[in-house]
Design goal:
218 residues; alpha+beta; Glutaredoxin; four-stranded mixed β-sheet; two-stranded antiparallel ribbon
Length: 218
């Protein structure tokens, strides 16, 4: 039986982006359909939707109106569409529990460390769940330390990291790298540092793209 072709995936995203978890679920389900042909080498890269957001966060409705001009009715319709897409892919959006948008920079610092520790995908998914399913604050150090511990990271080290400025420069550099290369909306899925797939695409779209890129490598 042939060995699956490994594809490097740089998944540029934010933990407060609903379309990013939809894109991730779709990508992973597509890879599962192709598991005899394709293996993913997955790296989560930082992107902040709201880098200027203060520590207190902002009401979601107010934020969406300010940033996108969305009316309450439009926002509600979008939330329903997102929840339905999530449910199709096996992810629960508890829209009633999520009332605020928060700063996510510290979450990205923790994810940078988690990559070194080999548990970055587990932490990313746990952070998505904490925010979108459980309605928790991803800027809270208490939340971040608890979630880190749940995926096998050392909670005391996570707390010390968050209290310091460790990985601040590394995360800022990565964010700037993707902005300078034209990534201004997420999710942005970059395959083998060459092929860009943008947005929370359906499973079939990812499946076709992965199959084609893998075939080119053979």
């Amino acid at each position: 039986m042939p060995t699956p072709t490994t594809l490097k995936i740089d998944f540029v995203s934010d933990v407060s982006c609903p379309w990013c978890i939809i894109g991730l679920q779709s990508l992973e389900q597509a890879a599962d359909r192709l598991k005899d042909q394709v293996a993913l080498d997955l790296h989560f890269q930082p992107f902040e939707l709201n880098p200027q957001m203060g520590p207190e966060g902002q009401d979601i409705g107010e934020h969406l109106q300010e940033k996108y001009g969305a009316t309450p009715a439009q926002s509600q319709k979008n939330r329903e569409a997102i929840a339905a897409r999530g449910a199709e892919l096996g992810f629960t959006f508890s829209m009633d529990k999520r009332s605020r948008i928060y700063n996510t920079f510290d979450a990205h610092r923790l994810l940078h460390w988690a990559e070194e520790q080999g548990v970055q995908p587990a932490l990313k998914k746990a952070l998505f769940k904490a925010y979108f399913t459980d309605g928790q604050d991803p800027s809270s150090h208490e939340v971040l330390v608890r979630v880190a511990g749940e995926v096998g990271l050392d909670a005391a080290e996570a707390r010390a990291l968050l209290a310091s400025d460790r990985f601040t420069n590394e995360v800022r550099e990565r964010e700037q790298f993707y902005l300078q290369h034209g990534i201004h909306s997420v999710p942005a899925i970059i395959v083998n540092e060459r092929h860009l797939i943008q947005g929370g695409q359906p499973v079939e779209v990812f499946e076709q793209a992965l199959r084609q890129i893998a075939a080119q490598q053979v």
